Amino acid sequence: MTAIATTGTDVRLTGISKTYGSFTAVHPLDLSVPAGSFFALLGASGCGKTTTLRMIAGLEDPTSGTVELAGRDVTALPPYKRPVNTVFQSYALFPHLDIYENVAFGLRRRGVKSVKKQVDDMLELVQLGDLARRKPQQLSGGQQQRVAVARALINHPQVLLLDEPLGALDLKLRRQMQLELKRIQTEVGITFIHVTHDQEEAMTMADTVAVMNAGRVEQLGAPAELYETPRTTFVANFLGTSNLIAADVLDTSGDDILLRACDTKLALPATRCTATARTGEKLLVGIRPEKITLTHADDAASVPDGRNRITGRITQAGFIGVSTQYLVDSPVAPGLSVYAQNIERDARLAPGAEVVLHWNPGHGFGLDAAQSIEAGTDAGEAGT
Ligand code: ATP
């Protein structure tokens, strides 16, 4: 398979916004998508991600701002004159044409005489060469999805836009297709912009994720960066689960910010705090459930020095095979989540048990306490 040449494609949105009457679906947004990257717009339903994608495609006129593709201002161009193709959730294949002709369609429409080599290459890319003469209705959902991708890629777009392309597939197939789409993107090297509400999908496939909330990008970065250092409670909870502990700042003079939550002292490296920490004010200390270790209170003396430690009581323990998920009530915060890998299970860690929760301070992150913990928790539920 010959890779489609990338040509330094870049998508740049400058001050782009969309209002419908008095409702603002997308607030003025600046976004730059690196050439050849797999970029995900991630957010809950109604956050404005599809509207943003449609403005890039030219299917929606922006209220303000500009869209540049590969350095060219295309804001005023209709969709068919933009070097983009869109793959929709409803594949939109032609039912009366076989797979080969569906894929060949774009070339034939442009009057390309000899299509065989390109169509064969595309079918090979999406691993459907054997099924070329079948009709779309004779394929599974995942296979139809791959035809839709091949049909879009054969036009050599500079950017491929994917609007919830895996939404109609069941969970197992979705997971397979995520890997498949990532492989295809790596192979062809074209910029993919993918819209999804599924955080796992965005993290599995994308190099860069823009987390959208209420028409704004809350944070943009590599998946691991967003997960390890979320900057807002929304991001902390939309990407996975976070425990957020409100604490008073005691001292900011050293490398670690020292804090107190109830009577418990906590430390947080200053480099892990995106909010401004001021002595006497509050901060949210975030810690992911899998970064916390649970130790039965009887063994509290075995917890190594230098770790943040709080006490609590287990209220729930859910065995899910690979891990056990605990809920722990602590005077410091109620309903703390802890995920423990099932390597050596301590049978005493059951509902009612008194425990010590402890973690490496370097695994925490600090957020502005002015953001409500409630809002973050709600967002987390929406994202799972
Ligand atoms: P979903 O995942 O449900 O598709 P989304 O994040 O892609 O959600 P958009 O489709 O971009 O959301 O819509 C953003 C907001 O704009 C929503 O509140 C939606 O109701 C509103 N909206 C979209 N299109 C229109 C329209 N033509 N007229 C009025 N409001 C609209």
Automatic annotation (TrEMBL):
PROSITE patterns: ABC_TRANSPORTER_1, ABC_TRANSPORTER_2. Its EC number is 7.6.2.11. Residues 11-239 form the ABC transporter domain. Gene3D superfamilies: 2.40.50.100, P-loop containing nucleotide triphosphate hydrolases. GO terms for molecular function: ABC-type putrescine transporter activity; ATP binding; ATP hydrolysis activity. It catalyses: ATP + H2O + polyamine-[polyamine-binding protein]Side 1 = ADP + phosphate + polyamineSide 2 + [polyamine-binding protein]Side 1. The keyword Hydrolase does not apply. The keyword Iron-sulfur does not apply. It is an enzyme of class 7 (translocase). One of its GO terms (cellular component) is ATP-binding cassette (ABC) transporter complex. Part of the ABC transporter complex PotABCD involved in spermidine/putrescine import. Responsible for energy coupling to the transport system. Belongs to the ABC transporter superfamily. Spermidine/putrescine importer (TC 3.A.1.11.1) family. This is Spermidine/putrescine import ATP-binding protein PotA. It comes from Streptomyces olivoverticillatus.
